[in-house]
Each structure stands twice: as C-alpha cells, then as structure tokens.
Records
---
Amino acid sequence: MAVCNVHERLLAADESELGALIDTLASGDRDLLWPGRDWSPMEFDRPLGPGAVGGHGPVGYTVSGYVPGRWIRFEFTRPRGFHGFHELAVLPAGPGHARINHTLTMSARGLARITWPLAFRPLHDACLEDAFDRAERACTGTVARPARWSPYVRVLQALAARAMRKRL
C-alpha cells in the first residue's frame, strides 16, 4: 500500500526563524518544535545529522539528510512494514512568510497495511498538527486555530499510554 501524507502550515515568520525550529529537534527542554509533553519524546543517539539513529515511541528512523535551518529527512527503521521516509522542510512563501511542510512517503507492507490507517495515521496527523501549533506559537506568540484531538485519537493515546505503563 503506497502512502503519501502531507501536512503544511503557512506562518507569518521569516524562513530563517521557522527553519531554526527544525534545528532544535530532540534537544530536550530546548526543543521548540516537537510536542513532547503529549507525545513520546523524540530522541537520537547523537546530535542531529546524517546517521543519527532514534525515533519516538514505536517509530524508529535514521537521519538520512539534513540541511540546518531548512530540511531534515528520516528513513524509517521501525515498525516492521514501514518502508520509506518522512521529512520536514521550510519553504519560502513571500515577504515575512514561510511554510513548514511535513511529507511522509512510504510503502506499508504486511501488518502495517492495517496499523497505518487504523492507528499510526490518526496519531501521526494529530502529532504533526500539535508540532505545527508549537511552531506557530514560537514564531508568532499565538496559535490562530489550535489543533484539537478527535475522540478517536484520545482513545488511541489512552491505549498507548496504558501500553507504555505496562512496559515499565
């Protein structure tokens, strides 16, 4: 099953200001983009750069490309059946504006043909919109239309939290 999932948001911000947020990924308390309060933290075995290995929760990836302040690509290493990548990019959008874009392109094989649409996709979509809220707040000081989790995402989040507690 081919998957192409795209999220983007236009912000009243300079490209350099928005791009600098990508560079804070996985930096703990200094991370201005990843919504780590409500989602599994993004962690890597070394600073951002090609070859860094990590992920968040059950999703693993390796940094396969990185242009500081502009673009980063992650190649999936898990879960089983995820074959492809996801990437963040900052795109120009006219004077004083920039667009943050996230593209996920993969082939879902085996059990992933079921888990992607039923669980991973709704969680992924909610997580990305939360991240874009953080980007908007960091660049503008406010969020015009904050993302809201659907009841289904709330159930999935509760189940994931319960599974994580059992693992500990």
---
Amino acid sequence: MTGDGTTGRGTTGRGTLIVGSGLIGTGTARRLAAAGEHVALVSRRPPAVPAEAYGARWRPLDATDAEACRRLLYDLRPGRIVLVHGPSDVTWCEDHPDEARAAHVAVADTFAALAPDARIVLVSTDNVFGGDSARNTESTAVSPANAYGRAKLAAEEALLAKAPRAVALRVSLVYGHEPADAGKWLNFFAACAHRLLRGERVEAPDDHWTTPVLLGDVAEVTAALLHAGHPLPPVLHLGGPDRVTRAEWAGIIARALRAPADLVTPLPRARTRYASRPVNACLGSEVLATLPATENIPVRGVREGARLLAPAFAGPPPV
C-alpha cells in the first residue's frame, strides 16, 4: 500500500485480516490468535463470541464498500488476508443470484486491487462443480451446480486475475461446534447434534455425497497457507478423507452422542433443502499433501471428528 493508501503494494505484514465472522472466519481467527498473531476480524455484525475473548479484534465493515476497505487496509496494513465473505446460504443465493454474485465478486475484486502483494486466501466451495464426479480435484473442470457456486467461481476469477500471491482454497462441507442458543446453526453437524440431543428427528438425504472437513483442520491448513514461504498454486482443494451421505453422517453423529439411531430419517435429496446441491459435493486434492507448508497436517475423518466434538455438545462448550 502506498502512503496515500490507494494500493496494497508495500504492505508491512502487520498480522492477518479476516473478512467474515462466520464459522470459518472465527475458527481461523482463533487458530491464529492462539499462536500469538495479531488478528483483525471484520464483518457487518459482531461475531457470536466476542473476538477479544480469544485474543483477536473485531471491527465493523461493509466489505462491499470499496472506500471503507481502502481506509481499513491503510490503517491495518496486513500482510495476510482471509476472505470468507458474502452470502453462503445456497437457497438464498438461488433466489437472489445477481445479488449473490455481486457481493462475492465485489469484495474479491476490491481486496485484489487494493492489496495485490498480500498473501490472500479466498475460501471457496465444492459447489463450483456440477456433481458428476465422486472426487473433484484441482484438475477437474468446473461446472457450478447452482447460483452460489457461480458466485464463488466468479469471485475466484476476480481475485486471481489481480493478486499473484492469492489462493482459492475450495473446501468441502465444514463442521464444528456451535452453541445450542446460536439461533441459526451454520453447519450440519451442529444442527444434527443439537436436535438429536433434544430427541428431535433429523431428516437427511441418502443420495447426497460429501467429504466433510473439521473446522480445526480448515483453520490449520489456512494458517499454513498464509505463512507459506514458498509459491502456492492458485487453486487448492481441502476435503475430508471420508465420502459419506448426509444421512450416513447423521447416523455417525447420533452414535457419537449416544442418541437413538432411529431419530435419523433418510430421504431423497429432492425432498430436502439440499435439492439444489450437487449430488457429489466431494473434494480431493492432488496437490495439498505435496506442499511443504501442508504436507504434515492430518485431515481427520468424520468418525474421529464426531468423537472429538461430542463432549462439547453433550457438556459445557469449549472455552
């Protein structure tokens, strides 16, 4: 960034800026802050848990306001940026495709233009694929399944066209702990866990395949990419090692929580809210495990993830 703050060239690397305070944004902020890094978290509304509680800072920002972003970057001068912005409700995006695309692309384009020399990681999605393949890798041809996938793909293209050190990290279904009183749970695991513990029925498709990835593993990989001391490919994939249907996964969650298995009701995808998702929302990587920054990071399967998370849902939430 120059002295007048009009460009990102010359950023001094004072910590990491995370744009978006949802599940992945706050999970990554926690991971970086725990390592002693200066972390600024920005979003329209405050995160559910105050960022200061785990050593980060939160500031309000409408990331679609380019001038506000310019002022923020001039003030913070981050060397690393994580973009987890924009509407992520697939159904909402399907109903508002132009608004979804505009929001995702505008933010990616703004940060690419203002901070082209920063290491930027854009968290993208498996929805950039049509669902024909059981394993989508970095070399699989993209064919977005829905409006959300089209918006994310357009954001990837906008970012990578202007920021040579940027990475689009496509992640599969991310899951982690969320409190029971969160209002609207942001991940499938939390929604299942809280309903099962209340004795409520969980309906899940038995013909919708995914490769779920634990939030802690996403945060670990993202942190490693931000600090990688070597060039990175422009596109990387991160999915879990297990390919499961949502119904199968809900059964695994029920067993981990010792909830009645018959509370899980398998249904066809077309009869659920997941009808617009690709049949195979599955990601694999040909590259991630070969990179020096990430080759030693284990990515855990759904059974280990359920075992690790179950105590937090059944008992006091994690600090």
---
Amino acid sequence: MSIEMDKVKIGVIGLGRLGMVHTEHLVTLISDAEVIAVCAVDKEQLMFAEENFGVTTYDDYKKMIDEAPIDAVVIVAPTGFHPEMTEYALNAGKHVFCEKPLGLEMPEVEDMATQINAHSDLVFQLGFMRRFDASYRHAKEIIDANGIGDIIYIRAYGIDPISGMESFTKFATDNDSGGIFVDMCIHDIDLIRWYTGMDPVETWAVGNDIAAPQLKAIGEFETGVATLRFENNMVATLIGGRHAAHGNQVEMEIMGSNGWIRIAQEPEKDFVTLFTNAGVVRPSMQSFSERFEEAFITELKDFIVNVKTNCQSDISVDDGIKALKIAKACKVSAETGDVVKIELS
C-alpha cells in the first residue's frame, strides 16, 4: 500500500526522553511527516506536547490508533509493550516504526514477527539508528571494500553519563528494561552482525553494580561486559554501563588483518578547547540524543520515505530477533557465570 499524499500522518506512542526527541524531530525537521496525535500515560508530558506541538493527545494507544486519522505509528513506549502495540497497529492497517529492542519475552516477539510478516503490505522498521550514523556507515563502506582486511576483533563501548542514574533507576524500578545487554549493548550487537555478516556462537559475560549498588535491588547490572566468539574464532567485546562522569561515551574499535578502524574515540561536543589555570578542557556530549541526533533524524526520514514508496526497511525483523537472542544469551551468562551457547535457529 503506497501513500499518495504529501505528508505521512503520524501518531507517536510514548513521550519519555527519546519519545519527545522523535516527536520534536518529526514536527520541526521532517517536512514529509505530520504528527497528528501522541499517546502517553503522563499528563504533564501530554500537556507539554499539546502546547508545544499542537497535537491531539491520548492516554490509551488503542483509542489513538482507532480514532486519529493517521497512516503510521512511532512506538517509543517501554520495551515490554512493543509487541502488543505493533500487532495492534498493523492489524489496524498502520505502518510501524518501533524502537529497539523488539520486546523482552521471546514467545511474544515471535508472535510479533509472525504478524509483521503477515502484513507485508505495511512497512515495519526497527530503530537501530546507529546504522544511520555517518561514522558507522563510513566504517561499513571501508569494511565492505576490504579496507582493513579480515576482521579479527571488535571492541564496543556504550556508557551513559552518571548524571542519568537517578532517572534510569526510577524507570527500571517501574519497568523491565531487559537488563544492560538488551537495553544498551543490543545496538553494538546489531552493528557487529552488520559489519561481519556473521553471528556469534557463544558468549561469556559478567556484570557488577560497583558504581551503583542501588541497582542490585531491582535486578540490574550497572556495568556489563560480554565476550562473543564467532565460528571462525573472531572475538568481540561488548561493554555497557551507566557511570561515565564526563558525559556520553560511545565508541567502537574494529581490528582487521590489514588495519584498524576506531569510531568516536572521544565524545567531543564541538571544536572548542578551553585553556585556563585549571588545565586544558574539552567539552563532552552529555546524552545519547545529542551524540546521535543526526542518526535519529535520518532514520525517521528513511521510515517516511519507505512508507511513501511502499519499500521495506533494510533492517529486518530477523535482525531484531537475532540481536535480541544474542543479548539475552549475554544476560544469562552474566547471571549464571557460565559460557552460553547462542542458538539463533
């Protein structure tokens, strides 16, 4: 089904940090989109959206999907709700952009995938936005051109600023985040699969709460480290955490037989360096939304184009399922201390 219109009419579900970012981008920066309605359970968030974006507000996502004159939904709700919201939207004839991960429980995710595949006339796109970041895309081009030879080892960091610990603790107390590997490292898992064209066969992982002991009471690791082994013995290390004092630290190093690639070694905010009696200071980015702003905009533009041209996303539901299974295997390994075989079939 193609959309014969100038603008794709959007309903957004979820107005937390990222939901508000997506909504603002859709309203202010993406000319082919028009946000008609938003849905959230927080009344203050709804009031803000109504006053600042001029949209109709709902506290029931089903009512929004049934009543609002929309073509597509952008789902930015807590992960556990992704499967039911996606299925409801697809059955209502709406295209779906869904933030990662697909969900938390594999039976629900597999049912979700069945519904996505059954609605091949509708676009489904998963929010692995790092594939749209210019630096990661450049690295992909170098790898595909055999610019560093065969990949030997990959190291990936994803560390949130410690300033966000209070808000994360509140979120994870009220919602199941999926844990550090599902919630954070899944982006790097997707990139590693994208770069290598391979899937890992086993993992060994550990986690701790040294930097945030309060997380232990809600079953969360503050820091998680996982080693992934591939069939050809290539190795990848994933490091996820929430304790960076300086800002948002996201980086990746790809070691090849003929060269290395290092992406975002330092989270530099801009080109300003301050020289004072306190020393030399370089401002750092303070949030993932700041670091990946262009990627978030580009992925939403891609979704709108896909809806208008009736083209499926390059990121498949199978990519989402495999990344989730790998992340969950890392979680099991960290919880048990065992090496875990990764079963993707």
